[in-house]
Amino acid sequence: MGIAFSLSLSESLTFLHVCLVFELLGPSLRCLLRSHGAQGLPLPFVKKALQQVLAGLQFLHTNCRIIHTDIKPENILLQLDEESLQKLLHDTAAWSQSINLGLKKPGILANQLDHCNIMKMGVKIADLGSACWTYKPLSKEIQTQPYRALEVLLGLDYSTPADIWSTACLAFEMVTGECLFEPQAGKYFSKDDDHVARIIELLGRIPPKIIFSWKQSSKFFSRQGALLRISRLFPCTLYNTLMDRYNWTKHEAAPFTSFLLPMLEYTPAKRTTAVKCLQHPWLSTQCPDQPCDSFSGDGTQNINLFHRT
């Protein structure tokens, strides 16, 4: 069934260049996130969408032996019902014409999703342009920075677990409206330095076995395993982050933390799989009847807003 949640190629044509014809889908999950601002998406939709993403990854990983390598909101497309899709196409065409005539300024597609019923939407994994076989990785540097797995940051070998790490980052962003890791370069350290530091702050010390399995470990770490260019850390567990910064209750934070942490396991071989994620009770637990904004906190307290100096 996982094939149903990956973008399908309808046909291909060759003229002066190759043309690929795909099924018609709506805008990306990024557009939907923008339409909801910083409050995140309704939990029932998040769970439904994650089930579909994980089913799609299960198909890619197990049946196709493919690593997607770039799971992020931009590469998850919305599946709309026929009526919503037709209205979206009409509105987009009218909007484009108005821009061409100089009547309106360019806007974002998110504004045109307001009329759609979110619980009628499905999602599909798209953009396999940088995907690779599990037995033949193409590049050492994969994934968009905020969704990049630790092993990729450290230049270690990677496989399907890298997609699971990215999916954990995606899940957090869907429920909070903010990136789990949003690294920033400073005067004396790189964006990668900050990224590794933020991972340690959230998930704890990286085992020396992982650090020193990398031939170029001295790029980030001292011989004692400490970060070279960032000495001051601000530790905060995922559980406490959800409660303190996003105002979740312990009954909301504990199950989601239980779902997410195995996806962020430092050792790729020990990291959970798409199959196991689909079996986690958090995904199938019915959400209480609460408004969407009850799961969002004060945006000024976001975990990623502070900037190291």
From TrEMBL:
Q: Which domain of life is it from?
A: Eukaryota
> Which Pfam families does its entry note?
Pkinase
Gene Ontology BP annotations: intracellular signal transduction; regulation of mRNA processing; spliceosomal complex assembly
* PANTHER family xref list: LOC100144966 PROTEIN, PROTEIN KINASE DOMAIN-CONTAINING PROTEIN-RELATED
Q: What organism is the protein native to?
A: Mauremys mutica (yellowpond turtle)
Q: Which reaction does it catalyse?
A: L-threonyl-[protein] + ATP = O-phospho-L-threonyl-[protein] + ADP + H(+); L-seryl-[protein] + ATP = O-phospho-L-seryl-[protein] + ADP + H(+)
Q: Which GO terms describe its molecular function?
A: ATP binding; protein serine/threonine kinase activity
UniProt xrefs under SMART domains: S_TKc (SM00220)
Listed A to Z, the keywords are: ATP-binding, Kinase, Nucleotide-binding, Serine/threonine-protein kinase, Signal, Transferase
Signal peptide annotation = 1-21
> What is the designated name of this protein?
non-specific serine/threonine protein kinase
Q: Which residues form the Protein kinase domain?
A: 1-283
InterPro entries recorded: Kinase-like_dom_sf, Prot_kinase_dom, Ser/Thr_kinase_AS, SRPK
